[in-house]
Amino acid sequence: MVIVSSVSGSSVSCAVPRRLKKRANNKRNRHLRQLNAPPTLPYPKPSPTPLLPPSSRPSSSSLSPYQFIETAIAHLESSSQHLSHDPSLLLSILRHVTLPSHIRRLRQLIPLFLLRRHASLFAELVQLYCSHGLVRNAHHLFDQMPERHKSNVFIWNCLISGYAELGLYDEAVALYYQMEEDGIPPDRFTFPRVLKACAGIRSVPLGQDIHRHVVRSGFGNDVYSLNALVDMYVKCGDIQAARKVFDVISERDLISWNSMLVGYSRRGLWREVAWVLRGMLDAGFKPDSITISTLISGFSQSSSTKFGLALHAWAIRHALIGNLSVGNSLIGFYSKINKLALARKVFESMPRKDLFTWNAIISAHRLDRQIFDLFEQMIQSGIKPDKVTFISLLSSCADLGLVVDGKRLFNEMQRKYNIRPEKEHCGCMVNMLGKAGRVKEAYDIIRSMPSTAGPAAWGSLLYACSVHGNVEVGEVAAEKLFDLEPDNEHNFELMKRVYRKAGRVEGVERIERMMLDRGFEL
């Protein structure tokens, strides 16, 4: 009730009871508290039923991201159907998922009609599939969607990128051309993805065709697309085309400079490397760890000691020596120029060592018995060896004549570390056993190989037969090599030596006739 206390002219004064005034103040304070409250988790309430029941709802601060998603999915799986049909709730959960197993469980909860009805939910699921290597699942889902969902270039970019990341380059390129045929206009993120696939195929004509599409689509000045073109031409071996594109880039970034450095260094064009480095520094860019490690790897291939030492000094001056990729490249560089002590010094100075570090230093000691001590240190440090580790170890056993150690490591590789022997491992064993005169054992290794042996393994076996005089196995190895390498004269000479050592004149004459038929000179 309002009580009129006084009237003066046109002014009316009202006296408000204290009870009503206090209620209005409380309402205003509650409203202000809601406005200033910290943001809550972005899971909207689909119904009065909470995401987690009060008895099983721990505080968000006590859960890790994995536990939170696991708990949310588990509750969705056990809850009534209306929760799993809420697109906003599902979208919020999908945006926090990081494991393929969680993606699969959520997909089972989402009905197909919901994905067809809500394009954003479908796009998020496709993106998750592709970023976790499940591109086949993403493509299968894509094929079940209505045409209006397929007009989104984001979806096509995800699929092209997913295939390219898995090394399925032909599928990525085919998808791009299907996208073009369907009239979906590309954006600036489409071309770097498809150009990566072109680089993987190593096809310059294909890359040139995509280059024309880049220009025709209006991205001829886009640095993102131009950098991808430089990288594609470099990887395809057309360094001149890469340089032409590089010269067109008006605002080069670090990726632009690094791409040209990679191209020139891999071809040993050190004058051009120096030119790019000078231009890079003049433009205000400093070589980073990627630049330095790439260049050092290139110098390793050319045995350019002077440049390698200069880059090592640069890395020290600019505090890059602790970087893993730089350290690993330096170990490889010094081992290739036979500076084992310097490789060991770099290794010991590295504050952190990964699998590549250990593999690099173990490979550097292939001709040194210290390789076994390094392998033990690697195991003790908690780093699990891989197939590359054992290739270096078995190669070392072959070079040093350590048959017992080689056989032990070959068995350990399979039984203890669950690594299946590949051609390279078996080739090392054939070489090791052949050098030791155990030709029959070497032949047994080839016959037990999971895949067909190549020229390297059969060549090692034939060489062992020529040294130790085993005609029976030598004939088998030679027959295989004559089919695999019909123009390799060395294989015929080795088989002649096998027959000559065994006193088989008719065998020597038969091999000589075969050589004449193939155009070889005796």
TrEMBL record:
Pfam family, one: E_motif
Mapped PPR repeat ranges: 152-186, 222-252, 253-287, 386-416
Domain of life the protein comes from: Eukaryota
Single Gene Ontology BP annotation: RNA modification
Signal sequence, start to end: none
Composition bias, Pro residues: 39-56
Chain positions covered by the region annotation Disordered: 25-63
Molecular function terms, GO-annotated: RNA binding
Keywords from the named record: Repeat, Transit peptide
Name listed for the protein in its UniProt record: Pentatricopeptide repeat-containing protein
Organism name: Rhynchospora tenuis
